[in-house]
Amino acid sequence: MMDKKKLIEAALPLDAVNQTSAREKSIRHGHPSTLHLWWARRPLVAARAVIFAQMVDDPSAHADLRPTKEAQEKERRR
């Protein structure tokens, strides 16, 4: 039995994750993370992106649903 490739192995939008993580980390007020100072707090956006990408199959793993390379790339960007 062949395991399906996960999204984290094929394409993870690092630029978007980095920008959003930096924005989240620079929030000074109005966010629940500012209630208490955690010295080594990691942005929640980065953690969510990694966990999601580990759980979701890569679009190329389902060739019957997306037969063309263009459709697979479009699904990866989504």
Automatic annotation (TrEMBL):
Residues 11-78 form the DUF1156 domain. It comes from the Bacteria. Pfam families: DUF1156 (PF06634). This is DUF1156 domain-containing protein. It comes from Desulfoglaeba alkanexedens ALDC.
